Amino acid sequence: MRDRLDADSVRRWCIGTLAALRRNRQEIDALNVFPVADSDTGTNLVLTLQAAVETLDGDTARDVWGAMARGALLGARGNSGMILSQLLAGAADALPVGTPVRGRALAAALEAAVAAGYAAVVEPVEGTVLSVAGAAARGAVAADSDDLAAVSSAALRAARLALEDTPAQLAALGLPDVVDAGGRGLVVMLDVLDAVVRGAAIDYSSPPAHGPLPVTGKQEGWEVQYLLDVAGDADVLIAGLRSRLAAVGDSVVVACADPRAGVWTVHVHADDIGAALEAGLLAGRPHRVVVTPLMVDPDKTVQPSSPAYDRVVVAIVPGAGLAQLFAAAGAVPVADVDALVDTVERTGASEVVLLPNDGAHAAAAAAAARAAGPGRTVSVLHTRSPVQGIAALAVAAAGRPFRDDVVAMAEAAAATRSAEVVVADRAGLTVVGPCDVGDVLALVDGDVVAIGADVAGVARDLLDRLLNAGGELVTLVTGAEAPPGLGDALNAHLHTRWPFCEVHLLDGGQPRSALLIGVE
How far apart, in whole angstroms, are the C-alpha atoms of residue 9 and residue 39? Predict the structure, then answer.
């Protein structure tokens, strides 16, 4: 029985876990239904741990655990491998320096692991490995002991119970009645850890290596992974990256693999490989790119019926933040005009309002309205900016006649003056003079009205200009390229200079405009 974790015990745990995952690989592959039923979770966990085993250097438990985490992060495979590597990294960072790793230190490390795991996943889902990890951490903390064996056993028990709950949680998503594959892999890891702590014999035997279970079915996109060298303000660059990836796909996991070298590891499921890579190029240099087709097993996928709505609003919105805002307001967001016709059809709605939210999209929205099938009424509101779309949605009411609702939404949009602040990406001549690359432009209803050098300064002057003509409600939507603190600074300026204005500050994450402004 061990009373503390040392370098040797962490090595034995890592190597023993790899062997156990290899023995259980086919079982875990067969359980794999979320996020995609592609039967490779067990294989991906094996490959991730294999990368970790190859880097087990260090003289202390913290050193070896940290090396294990770095190896796993750099060699992570699949959604499950990415999350597992981040759990390891979070725990490693929380281990004590210069003091023994006993029960309470292990419990604290497991808590930190869960926080890191949730932080890395853009849209966490309960009933997955994160839920099992959370239960393990809570069990370890509840043990309230410095006895290492008591804590490891409590964590294992809690994880096993949480794993038994995952079928019900996944069933709520319309998935088959099986335990979560990633959660099953984590229980294997905790089982080996508990055996190491108790001094039990570790089985290091492994079956011959072979690939994942063959999947016969249709391809549903691509799994794209790469390492990303980031130079500059990582907080800002990575926040923008997460927003862009969320707009092009799902199962987004972004985690720091090596803070000193500025290396991040990126994972996304997407239909457009190029868009997934371009999202990374805006934040740094992608390398070690791995692209895998997502082959979905139809026998393991339950397709929930799509609800049909009598009336729906479909809006074109750039940026994941804006998409979330419009979805929360009851609209169906789409990223580009090409998706309009298909989205209108998929809603099954008999009455549809289209919000192009950009003058350049008006013609495509009108074409989508004309292409609507029989028995469907489609009306296009000529919103020139997302802030006008937000104003229109604020007054939408499905309970009143369609025509009356469209008129009310159109009036709200028309009553909203729209403006934006953008950074010029090319030199040119505007109505107020020439501009160079990097100049900050203030636009009102699409026309340049001022040129400056500082985003915050140009935005303040633009707000004052708009409010001098009147206004009671100001909506500020910050973009992916907005400087840190811009929204808060402008909010403070408005409360000081225009104290009677109501201010709504939103994080839109739009790629082009540093700031969108609406004044009503």
Answer: 32
